[in-house]
Write a structure and sequence with these properties.
- InterPro entries: Epimerase_deHydtase, NAD(P)-bd_dom_sf, NAD(P)_dehydrat-like.
- The protein contains 13 helices and ten strands.
- α5 links the parallel β4 and β5.
- The two termini are 39 Å apart.
- The relative contact order is 0.14.
- It is of the alpha/beta class.
Length: 344
């Protein structure tokens, strides 16, 4: 905990990343407030946190919840009252992309603006924003030898940019524009890759859903697609480290342990679970094109199949002296959780 930061508002508190952020903040002695769209989820989150906290009572004594909506002004002043910092994780993250990109873009951008402007109005000047490598990777040329860095930005108008990628890019751009207009605002963005690992509770994100799909063996082969992989515990740890490290102010931080191609993922899962029907073959492009006609999730990413689109987290590693869980271990942590909970 820093000398000036003791209380933190975490938006989107029911999310995959956010629950781990809550856990790490509580373990480090912060007073934490989580925002939810549905207050009925509060007790389930407390229960999930109690099971992992060194002192389970912290889930009751150091954590409270407020109800907020990214698309509405109500409640933001009250939510930020008494807070020293904001960690804004809330943003839509679907497995399949919507027909209308604005379904994702509007709440992501409006929610980010609303959160940062409310923080400024409340005198909260320290903000850590959850962005994504989706805001880094997609620009011409797609296939390039050199990895992307924090200096790279996704082109929202590129034909290969998904609605999700556009939403994260435009939301992060909006955050940096607000920071530029208000020099007192101390902003850091964390840009995770595909987030793997064990969820806290039964709810999990789209990346874990992808691993579940692979382990269920419904696909005959896997697309040759590459993902920057990171364990959710490292994503949460980087958020907290960014909050506590003044040198990260004004920085974008790529959060990735390294790349894995989907056939590599399949091979690693098959090796760990040889009795399961897990695909390992590479799907030919013609087959992907055919399946994509009926599968919206595949259709949205077909343009990046075979493209070498990876990022380099070297800047964040050096700035924070950060060590990541290896990509394959993060993948297997996901699989172990799915098996243990009966999700596959």
């Amino acid at each position: 905990m820093t000398a000036t930061t003791q209380s933190v508002l975490v938006t989107g508190a029911s999310g995959f990343i956010a629950r781990h952020v809550l856990l790490q903040l509580l373990e480090r002695g912060y007073r934490v407030r989580g925002s939810l769209r549905t207050p009925a989820k509060a007790e389930a989150i407390r229960k999930d946190l109690r099971a992992h906290l060194g002192d389970p009572a912290l889930a009751d004594t150091a954590l409270d919840f407020v109800t907020l909506d990214l698309t509405a002004d109500a409640g933001w002043p009250e939510a930020l009252a008494g807070m020293d910092a904001l960690i804004h994780t809330a943003s839509p993250f679907p497995l399949s992309q919507p027909r209308d990109p604005q379904v994702l873009i509007r709440p992501a951008v409006e929610g980010t603006r609303r959160a940062l402007e409310a923080a400024l109005a409340a005198g909260v000047d320290r903000v850590v924003l959850t962005s994504s490598v989706a805001a880094v990777l997609t620009s011409a040329p797609l296939d390039r030898a050199a990895p992307r860095t924090e200096a790279d930005w996704t082109d929202p108008d590129h034909p290969a940019t998904t609605p999700y990628g556009a939403s994260k890019t435009l939301a992060e751009r909006a955050a940096w524009a607000i920071a530029a207009a208000h020099p007192a605002l101390k902003l850091t963005t964390v840009n995770p890759g595909m987030v793997m690992g064990a969820p806290l509770g039964t709810e999990f994100g789209s990346s874990v859903g992808l691993v579940r799909r692979m382990m269920r063996g419904g696909d005959p082969a896997l697309p040759r697609m590459v993902f920057d992989v990171v364990d959710v515990t490292d994503v949460a740890r980087m958020h907290v480290a960014a909050l506590e490290t003044p040198a990260t102010i004004g920085e974008r931080l790529i959060c990735s342990a390294g790349p894995m191609w989907m056939p590599e993922m399949g091979a690693a899962l098959k090796k760990a679970y040889p009795d399961r029907r897990i695909p390992t073959r590479v799907a030919p492009y013609w087959l992907l094109w055919l399946i994509a006609r009926f599968d919206p999730a595949l259709r949205s990413v077909l343009p990046i199949c075979g493209q070498h689109m990876v990022s380099d987290a070297g800047h964040a590693r050096r700035l924070l002296d950060f060590r990541f869980v290896p990509p394959e271990r993060a993948l297997l942590n996901t699989a172990a959780h799915l098996v243990a909970t009966g999700a596959v």
